[in-house]
Amino acid sequence: DAKTTQPPSMDCAEGRAANLPCNHSTISGNEYVYWYRQIHSQGPQYIIHGLKNNETNEMASLIITEDRKSSTLILPHATLRDTAVYYCIVRSLTDSWGKLQFGAGTQVVVTP
Amino acid sequence: NAGVMQNPRHLVRRRGQEARLRCSPMKGHSHVYWYRQLPEEGLKFMVYLQKENIIDESGMPKERFSAEFPKEGPSILRIQQVVRGDSAAYFCASSRAPTWGDTQYFGPGTRLTVL
Q1: What is the pLDDT of residue B99?
Q2: Best B95, B106, B110, B113 residue to mutate vs chain A (most A CBs within 10 Å)
Q3: Residue A47 needs a FRET pair 20 to 30 A away by CA distance; which of A80, A81, B22, B115 works?
Q4: Chain B partners of A44 at a C-beta cutoff of 8 Å?
């Protein structure tokens, strides 16, 4: 079973920031938080990952709380092409060979 | 820098036939993961392979499914005697190694339809 909890859906206005929450209250010290998205049944696309520090790349920012029990993915300026299912995944690299366990994700719809 | 390649992109088989799905990892990647996405369901891990070795096949159905990743050539997911329930999208991902923080990159998938 997935170790994360995400809202099933959210809407976002084009041009605004999209803040996607994720709860992972049982995360352990050696587990990373990964975010992927899947646009209309295409292959999942890697977005960003982090361990305990906040991370930023050209696609998004990842904010991880100090206790690591939750995180937020921020898409700074959402576009229509950001409409997708977003998956927050806690990834263990020591007891499961790094395989990804996908949950149901959050369906994000960006509207004009 | 080519990404993960999968072929065919679409595959139609009749019940009882064999399906072979191929995955070429990104350059420099020697680890391959296969995932399956049934209609209206989430992605599920199937198998993890390194070159010439199956490391974790805990997600593979016990019968009819097999996977390989030979020293030369792509990784192959093979489904024998397909049934309608095998209709799904099959994705592979590759990485350099499952060390801390190493990232898996996905291919576009193969959509298998069993008639």
Answers
A1: 64
A2: B106
A3: B22
A4: 43, 91, 93, 106
Q: Do A100 and B89 touch (CB under 8 A)?
A: no
Cα torsion angle, B2, A38, B95, B92, sign: negative
Tokens of B98: 């499952």
Do the Cβ atoms of A99 and B44 come within 8 Å? no
Q: What is the CA radius of gyration of chain A?
A: 13
Contact B100 A93 (CB under 8 A): yes
Cα distances (angstroms) measured from residue A71 to each of A17, A58, A76: 16, 18, 15
Helix (H) or strand (E) holding B95: strand B88-95
Distance, in Å, from the CA atom of A97 to the CA atom of B98, rounded to the nearest integer, reads 6
> Is B109's CB within 8 Å of A42's CB?
yes
What is the per-residue pLDDT across B63-111, written as a single tens digit (0 to 9) for each? 999 999 999 999 999 999 999 999 999 999 999 876 656 789 999 999 9
**A52-101 pLDDT per residue, tens:** 989 999 999 999 999 999 999 999 999 999 999 999 999 876 666 778 88
CB of A71 within 8 A of CB of A65? yes
Phi, psi of A58 (to 5 degrees): -70, -15
Question: CA A91, CA B45: separation in Å to the nearest integer?
Answer: 13
Q: Which residues in chain A are closer than 8 Å to B109, comparing Cβ atoms?
A: 41-43
Report, in angstroms and rounded to the nearest whole number, the Rg of chain B calculated over CA atoms.
13
